[in-house]
Amino acid sequence: MSAPEGGSTGDRLLGILRPRLRPVDLAVALLLALLGFGTVVQVRSTQDEGVLASARQEDLVQILDDLQGRSERLRAEVATLTATQERLTTGSDRSTAALTEARRRSQLLGVLAGTVPAKGPGVTVTLTDPQGQVSADVLLDALEELRNAGTEAVQLEGPADAENAGRVRVVASTSLLDDADDAGPGILVDGAHLRPPYRFTALGDPATLAAALAIPGGVVDTVGRAGGTARVERSGSLRVAVLRPLDRPRYARPAPDGG
Amino acid sequence: MLPAIALVVGVVLGLVLEPTVPAAFQPYLPIAVVAALDAVFGAVRASLEGVFDDRVFVVSFVSNVLVAALVVFLGDQLGVGGQLSTGVVVVLGIRIFTNAAAIRRHVFRA
């Protein structure tokens, strides 16, 4: 470019300041300055403001459309997921409640079936039998009296010996058999051999239970006539700790209501 | 010498001032810059061939920029702005490559 400028470049700075500097030189310089300026400005604005600032109107409309469709899709997805979450939450609440209820029922049934320990107010009845006259009948009568009086959990103990722990949880299927032998009187309760003195621990209303045992002609009288003694003690807090293993029924199956 | 200094001054001014491009000019500035680049490459080639003319350069520079901007503006009005600016950039790009090839032949004799 220096060739056509001829003499003015030869004189360097001095030449620039001279009046020989023609307007067209200034115009060229101005244009090139504008080019540099414009280039820098454009590059900077592209870098600063990203793609959107330099995008054309129709492109922007297209992008906006895309974004709106996308946000609509995402909103629909949010709604679906929220509904799912709600369903799962209420579902798990319901199953938690059902589980709690089932546990409660199994505890209650366990008390009746003798598979869980029970505690509460009740009476202890101690029967002595020095003459060997207190038979399984008498014990069965005593048990029936207690049941009639509303007892809810019963255990029957005799002194522990080498063969038995001497304690049996009394449930619906409990059987009582006379089992006297050479060593003395005794009974067989669900396969466990007990010897006197026998001791019932029955949970229920202590006053009712005690009254039921003490009626004329009742257990206390019968034992007295058989030469033994029956001592009834009320207590506010007793514990029926003996457990009975739960046998799975072989034939009977639960039948749902209406099933 | 003076044009080179002016170019540097313009770049420095752009860096220092950090102006923002008005929204109305945003579609035209890049096209104008490319058109001006085409004029500058043509001028360099002309000077190497010994046929450089100040006036021709000034007129071609200004008309290049104006025509490019006008084409893009018309394209915008007709709804084909995007395609037309692409076309302008392609044409100017081809010219720049042609001029650059001529410059290369003069400088490297190859």
Summarize, please:
Chain A is of the alpha+beta class and 259 residues long. Chain A is 51% helix and 17% strand. Chain A has three domains: 2-53, no CATH class; 60-113; 119-240, 2-Layer Sandwich (Alpha-Beta Plaits), CATH 3.30.70.
Number of strands of chain A: 8
Unreliable segments of 5+ consecutive residues of chain A: 1-10, 15-19
Overall mean pLDDT of chain B:
87
Give me the side-by-side strand order of the main sheet of chain A. Answer: 3-2-7-1-8
How many domains make up the coordinates of chain B? Answer: 1
Topology, number of strands of chain B: 0
- Helix content percent band of chain B: over 70%
Cα-atom Rg of chain B, whole angstroms?
Answer: 16 Å
Write down the overall geometry of chain A: rod-shaped
- How many discrete structural domains of chain A? 3
The residue ranges of chain B in which pLDDT falls below 50 over 5 or more consecutive positions are none
* Individual helix count of chain A: 8
Q: Which class best fits the helix and strand makeup of chain A?
A: alpha+beta
The amount of helix of chain A comes to: 40-55%
The CATH homologous superfamily of the largest domain in chain A = Protein of unknown function DUF881
The CATH architecture of the largest domain in chain A comes to 2-Layer Sandwich
**Mean of pLDDT of chain A:** 82
Helical stretch tally of chain B: 4
What CATH first level of the largest domain in chain A would be assigned? Alpha Beta
Provide a descriptive summary of the structure in words.
The complex is a heterodimer of chains A (259) and B (110). Chain A has helices at residues 2-5, 7-10, 12-17, 23-54, 57-113, 136-148, 206-214, 219-225; strands spanning 118-127, 153-157, 167-170, 176-178, 187-189, 192-194, 198-203, 230-240. Chain A is of the alpha+beta class and 259 residues long. Chain A has 3 domains: 2-53, no CATH class; 60-113; 119-240, Alpha-Beta Plaits, CATH 3.30.70. A 5-stranded antiparallel beta sheet of chain A has the order 3-2-7-1-8. In chain A, strands 4-5-6 form a 3-stranded antiparallel beta sheet, with helices on one face. In chain A, β5 (187-189) and β6 form a beta hairpin. The longest helix of chain A has 57 residues, at 57-113. The termini of chain A are far apart. Residues 1-10 and 15-19 of chain A have low confidence and may be disordered. Chain B is mainly α. Chain B has one domain (23-108). Chain B is built from 4 helices and no strands. Chain B has helices at residues 2-17, 29-49, 54-78, 81-108. In chain B, α2 (29-49) packs antiparallel against α3 and α2 packs parallel to α4 (81-108). Chain B starts with a helix and ends with a helix. Chain A binds chain B through residues 1-5, 9, 12, 16, 22, 24-25, 27-42, 44-46, 53-54, 56-59, and chain B through 1-11, 13-15, 18-21, 26-27, 29-30, 32-33, 36-37, 40, 43-44, 47, 50, 52-55, 57-58, 61-62, 76, 79, 81-82.
